[in-house]
Specification:
By secondary structure, the protein is an alpha/beta fold. The longest helix is centred in the last third of the chain and has 19 residues. The protein has one domain: Ribokinase (UDP-N-acetylmuramoyl-L-alanine:D-glutamate ligase, 3-Layer(aba) Sandwich), CATH 3.40.1190. The chain has nine helices and 14 strands. Helix 1 packs across helix 7. Strand 7 and strand 8 form a beta hairpin. InterPro entries: PfkB_Carbo_kinase, PfkB_dom, Ribokinase-like. It comes from Thiothrix subterranea.
Length: about 325
């Protein structure tokens, strides 16, 4: 079993072409949240996975639970809370890049405590955590303690997925990430994440520091400019496949899910997955991840692909 930790919410899309002065705005909602998406993405790729988060007992929480169950993501670790469900409003610009407005103060996914984590980790292959759950307490403190307890026992993965409209204080993000990094095996960031966190530092310098601290695999996504992967022994850069972009919502989550899926397969078939991260291996798993992300960009919202879809895309998509 693989565990994904973090928020579960509804993305509410503002449709294009509606006047700013309109009284009636026909919103369209979709279950989401970065960790929620990663969990579903991993399951669609064939991995047994559970989501660890707080989910409201309200009717929106019931819908989130139903989606997870329909996607065959385990809900046995979900902590039900008598608190609201987070809503994340999304409005796209002319080229499909989203901007966000979150409404989640006091919401269920921010209320996870150590008391909610009373289960056996013996069979857990890995844990992924990320996004604004890293900086909203008590969930943030719970995830930090979980990382501390499980470091060295299973694969630990981090995607900061910076959301300054949830926590606008960049210093808080830096402090929390600095506390988590010593425990992490895998770190994925976007160029936008690093520009927000460390605007005056070259991304390659930041990645080098992370590798020196013990991170075994680091990845940097650059949107239409492709992605780079680093291990302790190799580095590759891959272009983004050419697709007709509908929007970029969920692209990073798809990349993350694909990367973790490849690492779990590597973990199952090699004595030491980190030593197996040669240039050829990085190129293979990176190419799979960028193709998977491109598929998501070709569809509305965070509609992550299945394993069969990714395999077809590897042969069909042009770079």
């Amino acid at each position: 079993m693989f565990i994904v930790c973090g928020e579960a919410l509804f993305d509410v899309f503002v449709p294009e072409g509606v006047s700013q002065a309109a009284f009636a705005v026909p919103f369209a909602a979709r279950a989401g949240g970065s960790p929620f998406n990663v969990a579903i993405g991993l399951r669609r790729l064939g991995q047994p996975v559970a989501l660890l988060t707080g989910v409201s007992t309200d009717f929106l929480g019931e819908r989130l639970m139903a989606v997870l169950q329909a996607e065959q993501v385990s809900v046995e670790l979900i902590a039900r809370k008598s608190a609201p469900t987070t809503l994340g409003f999304i409005q796209k610009n002319a080229v499909g890049v989203p901007s966000y407005a979150f409404y989640g103060t006091g919401a269920a996914d921010r209320l996870l405590s150590m008391a909610d984590i009373a289960f056996d980790f013996a069979a857990v292959k890995g844990i992924h955590m990320g996004s604004y759950s890293l900086v909203v307490s008590p969930t943030a403190d719970t995830l930090l303690e979980l990382a501390r307890q499980q470091a060295g026992k299973c694969l630990l993965s981090l995607d900061p997925n910076i959301r300054l409209n949830v926590e606008p204080d960049v210093h808080q993000w830096r402090v929390r990430i600095a506390k988590l990094l010593p425990f992490m095996d895998v770190v994925k960031v976007s160029d936008e994440d690093l520009a927000a966190l460390y605007p005056d530092v070259e991304p390659e310098s930041i990645i080098a520091d992370w590798l020196a601290s013990g991170v075994k695999l680091a990845s940097l996504t650059r949107g239409s400019e492709g992605a780079s992967l680093w291990s302790q022994q190799a580095h590759v850069t891959l272009p983004t496949p050419r697709v007709s972009v509908v929007d970029t919502v969920g692209a990073g989550d798809t990349f993350q899910a694909s990367l973790l899926n490849s690492l779990l397969d590597l973990q199952a078939n090699t004595a030491d997955w980190a030593l197996a991260l040669t240039e050829a291996t990085l190129r293979r798993i990176g190419q799979t991840a960028v193709c998977a992300a491109a598929l998501t960009c070709s569809r509305q919202g965070a509609d992550l692909p299945t394993g069969d879809e990714v395999q077809r895309a590897l042969t069909e998509l042009r770079v």
